[in-house]
From TrEMBL, chain A:
<dbReference type="GO" id="GO:0016491">
    <property type="term" value="F:oxidoreductase activity"/>
</dbReference>
<dbReference type="InterPro" id="IPR036291">
    <property type="entry name" value="NAD(P)-bd_dom_sf"/>
</dbReference>
<keyword id="KW-0520">NAD</keyword>
<dbReference type="Pfam" id="PF00107">
    <property type="entry name" value="ADH_zinc_N"/>
</dbReference>
<dbReference type="InterPro" id="IPR002328">
    <property type="entry name" value="ADH_Zn_CS"/>
</dbReference>
<dbReference type="Pfam" id="PF08240">
    <property type="entry name" value="ADH_N"/>
</dbReference>
<dbReference type="GO" id="GO:0046872">
    <property type="term" value="F:metal ion binding"/>
</dbReference>
<protein>
    <submittedName>
        <fullName>Alcohol dehydrogenase-like 7</fullName>
    </submittedName>
</protein>
<dbReference type="InterPro" id="IPR011032">
    <property type="entry name" value="GroES-like_sf"/>
</dbReference>
From TrEMBL, chain B:
<comment type="subunit">
    <text>Homodimer.</text>
</comment>
<keyword id="KW-0862">Zinc</keyword>
<dbReference type="InterPro" id="IPR002328">
    <property type="entry name" value="ADH_Zn_CS"/>
</dbReference>
<keyword id="KW-0560">Oxidoreductase</keyword>
<feature type="domain" description="Alcohol dehydrogenase-like N-terminal">
    <location>
        <begin position="43"/>
        <end position="171"/>
    </location>
</feature>
<dbReference type="Pfam" id="PF00107">
    <property type="entry name" value="ADH_zinc_N"/>
</dbReference>
<protein>
    <submittedName>
        <fullName>Alcohol dehydrogenase-like 7</fullName>
    </submittedName>
</protein>
<dbReference type="GO" id="GO:0046872">
    <property type="term" value="F:metal ion binding"/>
</dbReference>
<dbReference type="InterPro" id="IPR011032">
    <property type="entry name" value="GroES-like_sf"/>
</dbReference>
Amino acid sequence: MAEKQVSGTTDGKPIRCRAAVARAPGEPLVIEEVMVAPPKAHEVRIKIICTSLCYSDITFWKMKDPPGSFPRIFGHEAIGMVESVGDSVDEVTEGDIVIPQFLAQCRECAVCTSNKSNLCAKFPFEMSLWMHRDRTSRFTDLKGQTLHHFLFISAFSEYTVVDITHITKLDAEIPPNRACLLSCGVSTGVGAAWRAANVDEDSTVAIFGLGVIGLAVAEGARLRGAKQIIGVDTNTEKYEIGKTFGITDFVNPTNCQDKSLAEVINEMTDGGADYCFECVGLTNLMHEAFACCRKGWGKTIVLGVEKPGTQLSLNSLVILHSGKTLMGSLFGGFKPKTDIPVLAKSYMDRELQLDDFVTHEMKFDDINRAFNLLMEGKCLRCVIWMDK
Amino acid sequence: MAKNSTGSSETAGKPIRCRAAVVRKAGEPLVIEEIIVAPPRCGEVRIKIICTSLCHSDVIFWKLKDPPGCFPRILGHEAVGIVESVGEDVHELSEGDTVIPIFLPDCAECADCTSKKSNFCSKFPFEVSPWLPRDGTSRFTDLKGETLYHFLFVSSFSEYTVVDTANVTKVDPAIPPNRACLLSCGVSTGVGAAWRTANVEAGSTVVIFGLGAIGLAVAEGARLCGAKKIIGVDINPQKFETGKKFGVTDFVDSRSCGDKPVRQVINEMTNGGADYCFECVGMASLVEDAYACCRKGWGKTVMLGVDKPGAELRFSSFEVLHFGKTLVGSLFGGLKPKSDISTLVKRYMNKELQLDKFVTHEVGFEDINKAFDLLVEGKSLRCVIWMDK
């Protein structure tokens, strides 16, 4: 882990550093020097140690129309060290190790003080281009052009500025190339199993899409004692790694012959799974997942990010006559500041497995390689070390 | 309840000739005619109906020209009666028992029936069937020998009917029959939806779309659960006076919102959305409205209304992911007939659950078509039909 920053040298001043800037949809990121303004009130400037690529970065990197927007600094899974804090920040100080998170937790509003939801009402989630409070950017390029933020984090930069509601302080001595995973993907999956679904022992789970989210759902379900964890994916290479995370059975939807996916899974589970998780972000799969959960008490949870504008279409009488539940979940229902440290501890106690999620590690200059690997389905998490 | 002599030793094991209200063509008045009711087979009981009430689901299938509408049929599924005779292998019921038939099967044995999490019996799955569940045949014929179809496994618009034991529950005969029949469907569905499916907590905010008997029963259930604010949404302002008796605290006439869509009005009234929304009409657009009116983060939308086959709901995938709301359908309010109806009977007898206000009309069997007219015109909640009057 990087050494403690010498305080006072950059405090209150703009920092010139390297960032991977996306200038046009789908085009390779360009590593260039940018200016990072000092943090305003309630904000924190962070020196990124490690960051990892999540598919949501790719979705919005490719997006030509709003809410796609360029030039932009992507990245939202990361771990870093606080370089300086703005006014009114008491929770963290320089030198603290922190995880930024796309979902805010103000700890004050009715939602944050309730245990029923993690959707902070004071700083609601949105696909924003800006900092949360004043809707401006802290980034400019060397020509003075504003660069847009991504998910309130923008981790593909040596330094970034994040609102205090989007930061979790980490005390555990967890290696940075594991900690960054808790920023989004793995927490979302484990949370979906533990919090959103509340998977119980001996239950049956079906997971649609075995990317990091889906495998993290499996990990969460395994830790809860689920008896049957079915992984659905067209990529058979996922099956080996899936077993590590607790998957007991695999279904390749392109290999179901005459039967529909729902028929296959209904047979395997004797009437439907207790819990179904959609972890890709495709409306058709959401429909399939709903069809595969059990009548009476089946619960389908949507985790995947679909393109804005797409619609889920469900038959009214089927919903009425099936008693099934449909819900979506952001960050798996976890409250970041409360739950990320719990997961970190679980990893250090050797319960939660994180090592197998990291399939590649590289330096910042090679960031585009991470994009290619993920698009080709050849990696789970590529961890990018900023200082190498 | 008067002890009724069914003359069981005379009719047991034999067909019974009696009156029934038969629908011969979609939407046409029911015809009271004599029919033959076969004796109960294995696992079945034959019931002499005392009271039956009209529910909107009867009206839907009465009007339905295409499958699953079918004719000639004996409708009716809310009722109370006395067991006249039992078929083979029936041990839990005997002649003379007071029973409520229910459209939702409860075998009390399968994994679903024994689980707390569901009321969807897997041994006798619910379906809108023209037959009895075990052997897929009918016990009714008219005097020309033509088969008459069953409805929802009950068919209570008949002096006698045959029902599977999975579709019957025994109740305390002390409850007046013109209250007991209500627990067969509508009122139980609404109260159960608040109590069991939604699990409304004290202090919650609830919105109910559609103030028919189901919607008002939801209000009653929410009231019993201690909800602080119960908003009723309807296009018929006459429902608002009635609604107050059931605990509805605020009303929204969805036709009088001016420029604002209903969902905006309700989001404003509830400061961000209700904890629980119930759709009690059976219209896709209303379900979508209900979903939009429940609160981000923990809002739960419960679907109770029966829509046309083929009706589709549309939700933005983005919103489903990002708003954290839950959507669930509920049959019979999530209640298990054999366990929960008796509880509701007790709560009525203890004067906690109010049923009297649901019964707005009572008629004799001969006037059954009046019940249909009143309901179709929106002039009644529950019209109770007395078979013996």
